[in-house]
Design goal:
mainly alpha, 5 helices, about 65% helix, transmembrane helix, about 180 residues
Length: about 180
């Protein structure tokens, strides 16, 4: 005997939904704790941190911000489709996947840099810790910027709301 099938729910979403900030915060907190533990026991064997260690995060954030403005303009002008010169729906899905993965990468980076900074701020007696703080701050800011750019890109990938019947000027079809 098979179990009865449940009726589909009206509000049930299929596929990928928007990234939740609380999920990103949870990732950052867990990674920060792990990073702090690892740095605490291995700091003496780490090389000195360059000031621009987190530079790649700034570059990724800038690229995603530019892509977000392009996608936003195409979606706003309803220039999405398969015709030449339009934003292909598959490309929009790929950009959305890029945004989701970049948000997670940014959360991981925020966690790593935060864990490192917590350790560095508690070690006033080490000259190396004072030297490494600016690079860790630059990396932390880069991680935050990447998360913000990724969330903005994800927001720009949303499909516009369906027009209402009044906005289109039509009447409901025959019942």
């Amino acid at each position: 005997m098979t179990a009865p099938r449940r009726p589909p729910e009206e509000n049930q979403e299929s596929g990928l939904g928007p990234t939740r900030v609380r999920d990103l915060a949870a990732i950052a907190v867990v990674v920060a704790i792990v990073a702090w533990i690892l740095v605490r026991y291995n700091y003496g064997s780490l090389p000195p941190m360059p000031l621009l260690a987190g530079l790649v995060l700034y570059i990724l954030a800038a690229l995603e911000a530019v892509i977000a403005f392009v996608v936003r303009a195409r979606v706003a002008s309803r220039d999405v489709g398969r015709a030449r010169g339009q934003l292909h729906p598959l490309t929009a899905a790929r950009v959305f996947a890029l945004a989701k993965s970049s948000a997670i990468l940014g959360a991981i980076a925020v966690g790593v840099w935060t864990g490192l900074l917590v350790f560095l701020w508690t070690r006033h007696d080490l000259a190396a810790a004072q030297h490494d703080r600016p690079g860790a701050i630059v990396g932390l800011i880069g991680g935050v910027l990447l998360v913000a750019a990724a969330l903005w890109l994800e927001y720009c990938c949303r499909a516009p709301d369906d027009p209402t019947e009044d906005a289109v000027g039509g009447h409901p079809g025959p019942a």
